[in-house]
Amino acid sequence: MSDYDIIIIGSGVGGTAVGALLASKNLNTLLIEKNEIIGGRCSTYEKDGFKIDVGVHSFARSNKGPLGKVLEMIGMESAIDWNILGPGESRWYYKGGFHGFPEDLRKFLPKEELMKLLSLITEVSKIKDTSTLDEIDVKSWLSQYTNNALIHRYFYMISGLYFVIPYHQVSTGEFIRCLTSLSKYQSVGYPKGGCISIPLAYVEGIKKMGGKILTKTTANKIVVEDGKAKGVELDNGEFISSNIVISNAGIKDTVNTLVGREHFENVFLQKVDNLLYSLSAITLKLALKKPITPYKMVVSFSSEDVEEYYSQMSKGKVPDEIDYFIPVPSNYHSTMAPKENQLLTAGTIVPRENFEKNKKEWIENSLNTLENVFPGISANLLWYDVTTPEDIDLMYGKQSAVVGIAQTNNQSGINRPSVALPIEGLYMVGGDAGGWGIGTELAATSAIECSNTILEKALSQK
Ligand SMILES: Cc1cc2nc3c(=O)[nH]c(=O)nc-3n(C[C@H](O)[C@H](O)[C@H](O)COP(=O)(O)OP(=O)(O)OC[C@H]3O[C@@H](n4cnc5c(N)ncnc54)[C@H](O)[C@@H]3O)c2cc1C
After folding, report:
1. Are residues 266 and 320 in the same domain?
2. Pocket of ligand 1 (CB under 6 A)
């Protein structure tokens, strides 16, 4: 008799969601998290009355997507209070001004290019099976329709924002799935209490069904005997048994460190070694004396040529004008900041290499860029916090990736790592295996897939 039916390592969106789904099926579930605060990359801390996300978050489909689906599946559909982005509440900032999307595109695009873009959107809406485009990268696909620099710039920006890799690497199938679902549901939003509300709700689901959560507890080893998962050894040496272990701790660390390479065949090891993580990010969280913007979200992008921007950044040059994704959490929920203040968060993709030596310049250029977008922001600054790739790596691992295994043209759809690892009873969940979608939604679809795979296997053995 094992101690638990299920042990989950890691309390990210994927780990907590799969825990809630399996606990709701009366499986005795234990979740182990090494940090004091749950949620992994989707976590929030408090400082001087501000509730601050570790990352910089906005949620593609809110309750209408897989994050809400998980809650619906466990009978807790109202556990999160979402505030949805309404018409006119977001803007893109380009060449010195704020603009609406898509209506203001005509200000910048010649008529024939606008027509090309519209016919491209119409064609996309007719695609029945997006998987046929999984292995084509967005840049090559887009170039079949237009070479307009601004349109390419825009697709580059969206690729960076949603998949955290440049558009010449993003899978077109994944890109189209995500963008069409965004446009269908029109429910970009943000939860009351900050992004941690999502994993917290799932943890409540686990506890409600009698499951247990251990924080400040590190799994040192996944014990495998005769090709089967047997349980987890903690950093204090304690062994907890279970025939099903689910890792939310990243596929590379799971295979190389937690399980050990000796338990896998070479072909599989080679595949894991070749997997590419998404890029990392720098995020600034700015506590402001008073509100400086009415918008809930601004996407600012530099006027620099797309190829130039990426190639210079990869070589270690810090752009003067930096692309920024800027959610304003306190404009979604006033409780995110003290009454008279405003909380503004800003994130941009950065390569993990070269970052630390250029950190000061990244921060300086970021603050200058934000001052251009929101004149007066520096004068209104109470303080700011910065999270760097090194911080992300130290806290959550996965080579400081923002998302997990990147949604490239050879790592999306059927080419994503499977949630079932080639060891009986061993599974992966989160941004590193299975699923599709933007960021947290990828982790939530992975959790649904992982839970279904485990339950189907259990049924087939009955
Ligand atoms: C800067 C930034 C901005 C982002 N913006 C967005 C956004 O706007 N929208 C969006 O949807 N997504 C966004 N994301 C991505 C999103 O946060 C992640 O894709 C998602 O939260 C990952 O969930 P996960 O299930 O893969 O687990 P992770 O968040 O990776 O969590 C894994 C957990 O496992 C724990 N762990 C690891 N090893 C062990 C061990 N040995 N023992 C115990 N515990 C262990 C870690 O401490 C961690 O808590 C952003 C991320 C970042 C960093």
Report:
1. no
2. 9-15, 32-35, 40-42, 55-59, 218-219, 248-249, 281, 283, 347, 392, 396-398, 402-404, 430-431, 438-441, 443
